[in-house]
Write a structure and sequence with these properties.
InterPro entries: DDE_SF_endonuclease_dom (IPR004875). This protein is an alpha/beta fold. Among the domains are: about 1-35 and about 60-255, no CATH class; about 260-315, no CATH class. Helix content is about 55%, strand content about 10%. It has 13 helices and nine strands. The protein has helices spanning about 1-15, 110-125, 140-145, 145-160, 175, 180-200, 210-220, 230-240, 250-255, 280-290, 295-310, 315-325, 355-470; strands at about 25-30, 30-35, 65, 70, 80-85, 100-105, 130-135, 160-165, 350. A five-stranded mixed beta sheet has the order 4-1-7-8-9, sandwiched between helices. It has a four-stranded mixed beta sheet with strand order 2-3-5-6, with helices on one face. α2 packs parallel to α4 and α6 packs antiparallel against α8. The longest helix is centred in the last third of the chain and has 120 residues, at about 355-470. The radius of gyration is 50 Å and the shape is elongated.
């Protein structure tokens, strides 16, 4: 229980410092996702169909991140509703009675800026004690948030009120965080029932009127039915008590914290046993009572007993070996490098100087990586631009050479065309002369032929006239 003892010792520092004296000093907040509208859980289709097409409007299948906040006295502050988008829509705050803090970012998930601004604008003004502690989980927007640390220090300088932010042990929030222990479960169940009731009676919940319905159920305003009311205050008080935070109870915490690191269990979750155990009594029992005398059977029984001691079975060992042999050939999944600079195994005070210094180192490292990446991208871009310039110059030279070659070819083609035109002109003149000469010959021939034909036509007439005169005589 080393982790549990470390966690309790850190809480005892808070208790001795006067941060856990009254219920108004102890705060908790946590994100959860709400479905803006319920999808239909039943459809009608032909029997045997594997897929049934359906349609949804723009309000369906969208979750809204909600961050409630309250203290151990049952005081519930206005909750934060985080939408994914670009603009704040004032229409979504209708009928919320100023009990909702709306925020918008690109992803719809919590970030450092929104988280720090919510605490500064909503949580700080609600604090009435001079010493306060805010318990939160290990989300990066909570622990690696230098802006929140700056706000806490500025708030102390302005008002004299100290605010510490404590992070729960890693992997233990489902057992140690009041909202997770006692509030979120009943809230989600009542919300699902409320959506079904609204769907049956008409007037469905959409992402535009979602906040007004959440305010009605969360703060029991006008129109809230008792069976749907969230009752966050009483459940949150119970959650603080069950987690041992207020009243501060180390005994309750010891019964709540999960054994995080067991030295007898290895990375494969197999318990280590003492080697060379004596099993003669077991073998004697097998021989005397069950008649099992073979050494081979004794070894099999011994292996089964040792597997039970290790917390496994022969089938699990065989399945693990088979899975390992199969996965050796599978491609390894690339995982994001884990940051081990912040040790949250037993919880941590986020506003302590040590954590702040570590966060500053992480921020400086991230800024250095971003600067290096930016410089690398700039160098690559400059290289590409230089290459493009060289390529453009080379292309310009090639284009100039091609233009000159094309110009020379055009000049050659023009000269060839000129020579061809001259040759064609000469040939045309010759052809014209030949045609004229042939035409002259033809006309002379025709004239001669006409004279001959006329002469021949005149000769028979004279002969006839002469013969007729001779006949008369």
């Amino acid at each position: 229980m080393e982790v549990c003892d470390e966690y309790i010792s850190k809480l005892q520092v808070l208790n001795s410092g006067g941060f856990l004296d009254s219920a108004e000093q102890v705060w908790n907040l946590d994100e959860t996702a709400f479905q803006a509208s319920e999808l239909f859980d039943k459809v009608v289709g032909i029997k045997g169909m594997k897929q049934i097409p359906s349609q949804y409007n723009g309000n369906a299948k969208e979750c809204v991140t909600v961050l409630p906040c309250g203290n151990a006295g049952g005081l519930q502050l206005k909750f934060l509703a985080l939408y994914a988008g670009k603009l704040h829509l004032q229409s979504r705050l209708g009928d919320t009675h100023s009990m909702c803090y709306q925020a918008v970012n690109d992803s719809g998930y919590m970030d450092q800026l929104i988280f720090a601004n919510y605490i500064k604008k909503v949580v700080f003004p609600a604090m009435t004690s001079m010493k306060n502690v805010i318990f939160a989980d290990g989300h990066f927007s909570h622990i690696n948030n230098l802006l929140l640390v700056r706000y806490c220090r500025e708030f102390f300088e302005e008002t004299g009120t100290r605010v510490e932010v404590f992070c729960f042990p890693a992997g233990q929030t489902c057992r140690l965080q009041p909202f997770d222990v006692s509030s979120f479960g009943p809230i989600k169940k009542k919300w699902a029932d409320y959506l079904r009731d609204r769907r049956a009676k008409g007037g469905m919940v959409t992402k535009d009127n979602f906040l007004s319905h959440l305010v009605i159920l969360g703060f029991k305003t006008e129109g809230c039915l008792e069976r749907f009311a969230f009752n966050v205050g009483p459940t949150l008080q119970s959650g603080f008590a069950r987690c041992g935070l207020f009243p501060f109870s180390p005994e309750t915490i010891r019964g709540t914290v999960k054994l995080f690191n067991d030295p007898t269990v290895n990375a494969s979750r197999i318990r280590q046993i003492e080697p060379g155990q004596d099993h003669e009594e077991l073998f004697e029992l097998l021989r005397r009572r069950y008649g099992i005398t073979s050494d081979i059977h004794h070894e099999k029984v011994r292996d089964c007993v040792e597997n039970v001691q290790k917390g496994t079975t022969s089938s699990k060992v065989l399945a693990g070996a088979l899975a390992k042999s199969l996965m050796d050939d599978a491609p390894k999944k690339k995982r994001k490098q884990k940051n081990t600079m912040l040790n949250l195994t037993s919880g941590a005070m986020v506003t302590s100087d040590e954590i702040v210094k570590t966060a500053e180192m992480i921020q400086a490292e991230n800024l250095g990586k971003k600067a290096a990446l930016k410089a690398t991208n700039a160098a690559e871009k400059a290289g590409r631009q230089a290459g493009e310039k060289v390529a453009s110059k080379a292309a310009e030279k090639v284009a100039t050479r091609a233009a000159k070659a094309a110009e020379k070819e055009a000049e050659k083609a023009a000269k060839a065309a000129e020579r061809t035109a001259k040759a064609v002109g000469k040939a045309a003149v010759k052809a014209a002369k030949a045609v004229a000469k042939a035409a002259a010959k033809l006309s002379a021939r025709d004239a001669k032929a006409s004279r001959v034909s006329k002469r021949k036509a005149a000769e028979p007439a004279s002969m006839i006239s002469f013969s007729s005169k001779r006949f008369k005589q």
